[in-house]
């Protein structure tokens, strides 16, 4: 176990856990040690030697980034010798470095530039024969080998943090360059964010603006429930913009945190309106007065959810959001057994885990940060990752140790198998009725999961200390979701497992805790971001334009059970939900006045929006908003009982799975100019054969009651008879709350 | 004064003006008033005017036929200079002038051009807002933007703009060797050549 260690840095005594590096401790304690290759979120590359320190009694200099602190050591971070050493390193970095700071995208925030100045290098006295190298463009990435200092930060982030293993070093001494196995690259842009110089740059941003001209607006990504911390970088638009501004790029605190491609490149989804459209507003208010139902999705802030709830309290609207209601029901069933309002795990728990099971989620597409967390778990903790799903995800092949394929619809049975394998004997005693009825042979037959596979899975658990199970969206909309929820809770209660239940959409968790949701629509419906007779929409295609999530202040409730603030990067000239609420008699001057009124009974705190913090400490701890209180829930014996496994509906024939592309996963990302993936249907040879269609062909089928036309693409990596069907361009699919697998009759277009 | 620090690039024939001490006490002030009232000082001035008129030595500048020479640090309408060797624009699109401008009248757009170089695609200065403070010329790392001598910029509207091409030295002027190196505000100091340290260029 880690034990406390005391030592001194520059004469001041400090404490840390054993195993922590000198650099980490020094930074946390506020000492400055310069580095060029260190990336806090990955293992040290130890390639720059800038981080050298002196340790009393040790000959020579010590690399602080990969040397653990030891009891009683006395460290010096600044001395003439260290200065000379570091200055020499900077001299070498500057050899043949192009003199193009004037145009370089990195200028103003470049580590090489900063440290060249810091170490007072006014001139360069030597050079070497330059090698011919080629600039490369890999989609969103542009790589300039002349600027590259070979610090290897990009390769380590790509391998360890993203888990793509796309970037690698093409060795050759002084000729070494970075190269990309482009097929493995998920275009997340993490490598751009960690590059200390201008070598790995954004293709889109290239030469578009300069660091010193951009204003940073800290906020939260609005595309999935991870609600990652990001900064919108904003400047006035072109020369004839008359006051309007735009987002030029998104950056983040790359030393400690990450963004996926959707967050980094999918930022320009704002809803631009010129003026307040009074007519549209009045008719929207009129529509609200006549309506009995508000239908909406979970791409809204906590404050908006509260406004909707207040409208319900006052005017008796039904609030319909099936996707959030599924999640709410799931959590209620979960709580009835666990006795807690929230699940126990979070992204950090996955990162720290050495044994992860994911069930019912295409994690790299549903919530990319889970994939990133898995990568950290695998690369740092050598975690065993089991991916339980009907479709194998080859984009996860580096990370998944064991793929267990189950039949579509058999999630309940699979969960029962897991419970049987991992639950303690006491738990089995407690739920005797359920366990005695369990027919493993039957379940195994129906789900097509071999009992040996589960045995194998269990055997890997040996000596593992911090297992986590991740439950995804497939399960929320399953007919037996309530029973599955209870099993998940029982597993959590009766084993070491921590649980993460992925909120399906950006603010599903918030909405499910704030709104009292109804199942049935009434006769007259207004939609918010969902099509209805009258629609308020942030996409610009409704009856009244609403601000998009990059134009709003408010908060989200993230997968980490954290209430995080978002700030408006761009102004919105039109109306917002609060204006409607005021017109309907639910009055509060600003939307953010609701932040402190979020229901404390559900674990929210009465904190003002303006006092929510959003920064990282030197040690890398994110101080963002606040954590929800995990409330104790009184459980009733009667609710606790797990019912027997229901018989499976079978999913024969052509089945499609609603899942999106890696960075393209909702109507908002679809609006952005850098994310260009097209909606399609992707299936295996086997699927094509069964449906009698060919790759590249246009096909049509019924989906959610509408006929859809898609291009069918063959993917040789895929197996089985379930095809992947993108829904990001279908306006209302996110909130439909339907089970994600659909049986379809596929026809060639034109028949 | 070392050559680096001598920033006075104009003519330096200044001289001190001989001015009487100001009265300090009330009594002194009273004496001054009495002296001025009863002396014939007034006629001295009138005589000077009359004398100069008779000599036809008129100092009034007959603008616009006649214009005064400008000091080298005079700051009027900007110019964008070209590189002496190649004739291409000096401006690299660093945006510092746009950033530093305190009356927020410079706007520019840059992009990557077909040769993968940074290109200034749009550039404008709103001379209705510009207060000719010279910050842009001073901050420019390329000695690209400078203040020229054209101070006649009346317009019918308060906002009036010059674009990049309006400011850039015309090619024929440039070819005729007429582009003047800027000597004033924000220009490099005399002796800069000697203080430049070379970077070895083995590539
Ligand atoms: S990478 Fe840094 S040092 Fe190199 S040209 Fe760009 S800004 Fe200058
Ligand atoms: S974009 Fe992401 S996946 Fe692609 S090379 Fe960079 S870090 Fe790796
Ligand atoms: S591209 Fe950037 S991050 Fe990668 S090795 Fe070169 S300098 Fe380092
Ligand atoms: S993981 Fe989710 S929240 Fe984070 S950047 Fe990607 S889309 Fe945004
Ligand atoms: S400061 Fe000079 S080089 Fe930079 S944009 Fe302005 S004119 Fe161009
Ligand atoms: S930070 Fe330690 S070697 Fe680079």
Radius of gyration of chain B: 25 Å
User: What radius of gyration of chain A results from the CA coordinates?
Assistant: 27 Å
In round numbers, the mean pLDDT of chain A is 94
> Which pair of protein chains has the largest interface, and what are the residue counts?
A-B, 26 and 29 residues
Overall average pLDDT of chain B: 86
Poorly predicted parts of chain A:
none
Question: Given the structure, what is the number of helices of chain A?
Answer: 23
Present the secondary structure layout:
The complex is a heterodimer of chains A (751) and B (203).
Chain A lengths: L3 E6 L2 E6 L4 H7 L23 E4 L6 E2 L10 E3 L3 H14 L17 H8 L17 E3 L2 E3 L9 H10 L4 E4 L6 E4 L9 H5 L5 E3 L12 E6 L8 E8 L8 E7 L9 H5 L12 H13 L2 E4 L5 H14 L2 E3 L1 H17 L8 H5 L3 E5 L3 H4 L1 H14 L2 E5 L13 E3 L6 H12 L2 H6 L1 H6 L2 H8 L3 H9 L7 E5 L1 H4 L4 H14 L3 E4 L6 H7 L10 E4 L5 E4 L6 E2 L8 E4 L4 E5 L10 H7 L30 E3 L5 E3 L1 E2 L9 H4 L14 E4 L22 E3 L1 H7 L6 E6 L2 E9 L7 E4 L15 E3 L3 E2 L3
Parallel strand pairs in A: 1-5, 14-15, 14-21, 16-17, 16-19, 17-18, 19-20, 21-22, 22-23, 29-33, 30-32
Antiparallel strand pairs in A: 1-2, 3-4, 3-5, 6-7, 7-10, 8-9, 11-12, 12-13, 24-25, 25-28, 26-27, 29-34, 30-33, 31-32, 31-35
Chain B lengths: L25 H13 L2 H14 L23 E3 L15 H5 L5 E7 L5 E9 L8 H5 L5 E3 L13 E3 H4 L3 H5 L16 H4 L8
Antiparallel strand pairs in B: 1-4, 2-3, 3-5
The structure holds iron/sulfur cluster (5 copies) and FE2/S2 (inorganic) cluster (FES).
One iron/sulfur cluster binds next to α3 of chain A.
